[in-house]
Amino acid sequence: MKGFWPIYKKELYGMFMSPIFYVVAFFFLLICGIFFNYILRQVIMVSYQVAQNPELAQNISMPDLFMRSFLWNISVVMLFVAPLLTMRLYAEELKSGTIELLYTYPVTDLATVAAKFAACMTTFTILIAATLPGVIMLSSIAGSSWKPIVCGYGGLFLLGCSFISLGTFASTLTRNQIVAAIITFGILLVLWFIGQAKSSASPLVGSIFGYLSVSDHFEGLAKGLLDSRDIVFYVVFSAFFLFLTLRQMSSYRWRG
Amino acid sequence: MIEAEGLTKFYGPRGAIRNVSFEIDKGEVVGFLGPNGAGKSTTIRILTCYMPPSSGTARVEGLDIIEDSLRIREKIGYLPESVPLYKELTVRRFLRFAAGSKGVEAKKIRSEVSRVISACGLEKTANREIGNLSKGFKQRVGLAQALLNNPSVLILDEPTIGLDPTQIIEIRRIIEELREDRTILLSSHILPEVAQICRRVIIINKGEIVATDSPANLTSQLQKTATIVLEVSGPSAEFAQALENMSGVQKISMESNGTSKFEIETDPSVDIRPEIAALAMQKGCGLLELKKMQLSLEDVFMQLVTEESTVEGAES
Fold first, then answer.
1. In this structure, are residues B46 and B9 in contact, taking their beta carbons and an 8 Å threshold?
2. Which of A4, A105, A254 is best to mutate for the B interface (most B CBs within 10 A)?
3. CB-based contact (8 Å) between A227 and chain B?
4. Which tens digit of pLDDT belongs to each residue from B267-305?
């Protein structure tokens, strides 16, 4: 992994120097804030209604209901955010020709891919971590358990890994950042909604759809249910696309 | 030390270079010359391990470009043709990144960066963003990153392209300073530049090497006739007649316009200027100019490149 740190630092610096990050962060946090407020109101309303029916109240945990809806909404916003964070990773280097520097410096292709992915994950983690204070505050007021928060945010992180690995790969396919973002967004949308198509497909195809769907695997984690199958899915998904990125980069070298 | 053996590269069906072989000894400064699109950058990109050749092999400092790619890249300082730089970084930050990537120890990065900054005269611009620098300074930053970690081999692809004359002189001065105990390969399509800096030139055209020698040898080899330019006062048909009959003279062209100008092609092995001068005195003509034309590297280059294309034209 020779050369990981310098590239990681350069990528982070480039990320924080670009206006894209700040614009994306602003709207991401604004929208998350709106959802936070809206969902909290909804949950409070539901809890009023439930309070009149004690039997029902025993089966519904209000903090869990809130967490599930909130995380679900963040994950949808991430569909839009991830392509914007990843689009420049390789496309910019290909366009400006700086890839020639990276390729002729004594750093391995693996270190480059890993450093770019790690830098993007770092910014992404900062973004989702910025939504944590509200959640933590709420949960300490409500006196609810920490486990769903840890599980849910862990799930968000894994979901982000898969989105960003896909985006990193898409960024190697073109010199044009906008095209890279659209490819990422398109594939993500397909993989997101494929889960909903499973009911209309045959049982075999339906189960394959369900397994491939990035959203289905998140459902459990958002509810606070830790299932190793979901974790394995995201890890394999990310590793697969990072591997493709690596292959694409060596193929780029051969084609010249 | 650089050795290339039968390097061939295809981009799809299009061949960029064919069977390129040459050797550059340690400490040599070699010019790599050719018109645009001749395959200079392709060859250089193979040597710097940017891309592998379709066939053939090359060694840099005795290491194979495919098997020891990483170790070669540690030893090479490379300035790519388009001088790609990270525009959003400042000069110093970019050089720190480059130093780290090139394997300079963390403790030495600061001093190494300061060293190349002063070597390339970048002190005043060190804290400016690269995107805001002029072309000449960007070129210096490119050169500075190539010098990091003190590489024993320097490969510069068109280091002076697009610069104004003063900037070209500056860059040339920097390269002059670098030459001691380094192997330098410098590509260019500007001939005087190469003739000034390099002791040996490799001329490539349409993907093939057409000549390798010192500028002086190339000139003398290709000089089949020597040309003497002569100007005398007064119209003198008699003098012209006498010149034509002189031994060693192969061809004469004359232009009269108050004075008479002659271009005399002679055998390059003998210098007949004294005889011409004596003849002019004898015929009573005032001698205004008498000089031997030197075939410049430019002529050599044109000759090699056009010879090649006429041969190709004849084939097709």
1. yes
2. A105
3. no
4. 777 788 888 888 888 877 888 888 877 666 667 777 777
Partner A contacted by B10 (CB < 8 A): no
pLDDT in tens, B132-160: 998 889 989 999 999 998 899 999 998 88
Distance CA B164, CA B136 (A): 8
> Residue B40 phi/psi, 5° resolution?
-65, -55
Q: Could you tell me how many CB contacts below 8 A there are between chain A and chain B?
A: 84
Interchain contact B103–A (C-beta under 8 A): yes
- pTM equals 0.84
**B101, A7: Cβ pair inside 8 Å?**
yes
| Residue for token pair 């050795």 | B3
CA distances A218 to A2, A68, A70, A78, Å, are 34, 10, 13, 13
Write out chain B in H/E/C secondary structure: CEEEEEEEEEECCEEEEEEEEEEECCCCEEEEECCCCCCHHHHHHHHCCCCCCCEEEEEECCEECCCCHHHHHHHEEEECCCCCCCCCCEHHHHHHHHHHHCCCCHHHHHHHHHHHHHHCCCHHHCCCEHHHCCHHHHHHHHHHHHHCCCCCEEEEECCCCCCCHHHHHHHHHHHHHHCCCCEEEEEECCHHHHHHHCCEEEEEECCEEEEEECHHHHHHHHCCCEEEEEEEECCCHHHHHHHHCCCCEEEEEEEEECEEEEEEEECCCCCCHHHHHHHHHHCCCCEEEEEEECCCHHHHHHHHHHHHHHHHHHHC
Domains and CATH numbers, chain B: 2-220 (3.40.50.300), 224-293 (3.30.70.3190)
**pLDDT tens-digit profile of A59-115?**
777 788 888 899 999 999 999 999 999 999 999 999 999 999 999 999 999 999 999
B63-64 and B55-60 strand pairing: antiparallel
Interface pTM (ipTM) of the complex? 0.86
pLDDT at B127: 93
Give CA separation, A166 vs A1, A8, A82, B45, in Å: 21, 19, 9, 30
**pLDDT number for residue A47:** 84
Total residue length of chain B: 316
Span A39-60, average pLDDT? 82
Cβ atoms of residues B296 and B223 within 8 Å: no
Lowest mean pLDDT among A164-168, A220-224, B103-107, B140-144: A220-224
Q: Is B50 in Cβ contact with A103 (below 8 Å)?
A: yes
Residues in Cβ contact with B12 at an 8 Å cutoff, skipping those fewer than 6 apart: none
